[in-house]
Every structure is written in structure tokens, then in C-alpha cells.
Amino acid sequence: MAIERKDGPTSLIFSRQNLAQQDRDAEQVANIAKGGYILKDCVGKPELIFIATGSEVELAVEAAAQLTAEGRQVRVVSMPATDTFDKQDAAYREAVLPAAVTARVAVEAGIADFWFKYVGLNGRIIGMTTFGESAPAGELFKMFGFTTENVVNKAKELLA
Asked: How many helices (DSSP H) and strands (DSSP E) are in the chain?
């Protein structure tokens, strides 16, 4: 029996996390394959860049919206695959994370230290520095600072 091959999706993947759906245009969807891309941008040069992955992207988007409403120029970069992003040409990496924008905040519910590569030594990272806590996810997120309020406050420290 021959199996007919069809072009298109071969699997459908669901997350156990309650992730907010982010609107993306066709270019952004294509750039997901580059490991990191601009999800939300400002008009002109950004003052600050949020870098996030997974469920933390929603926090970065919410924080960016709050800062934008206060008159700040903020970019949100979704970085689902750092190793793939690192393999992109220098021009693409610079277009997404311009070296001239040093005010950067990474939001990652995993290990924090890795993200200094992207935020620099003067950037801020909201991430885990310990292991072994047990509680409902909502309580742990608050305890470790994964709140819009904390993300905004870290950004404001850099912008001050």
C-alpha cells in the first residue's frame, strides 16, 4: 500500500502551559526559524529591548505595552532558539539586537546566567538562580519576580 505524501504540517503540538497567543505577521512567522526575531517594535530606535522565550514572552509584551504608554521606545524580541539565532549572519543579529541599544532585559524562567550573552554585563535578567522550590506556579512566579510589575521595574532601573 503506497502512502501519499502531502506538503504541510506533519504534527500539531500543544503546550501544557496557558500561553497567550501573540499576533505575528508573515515575516515574523518566517523569522521564528531564525531562532530570534522582533515580535513588537517601536517607531525609531529602541531605548530598551526585552528578550524573552516561551511563556515569558507574554510578560515582556505586557511590560513593553506599559512602558510604551509612558512614552518609552521599547522592542520585544522573542528568542525561542538561541543556538539557531547565534548561527544567523551578523547583519540579521544586529538588526534584531542592535549593539547600540545596551538597555536590555531578558525574561526566562530557566537559568539566568546564560542570558548575559544577550543583555551584557549591565543588562538585567529575570530568571532562576536556585533550584528546588515547590508551590503552585502562580506563587512561584511572584516569588521569583515573573510579574509585569517586576519586569517594568527592572527596565526602569536601566532607563533611569
From this structure: 7, 5
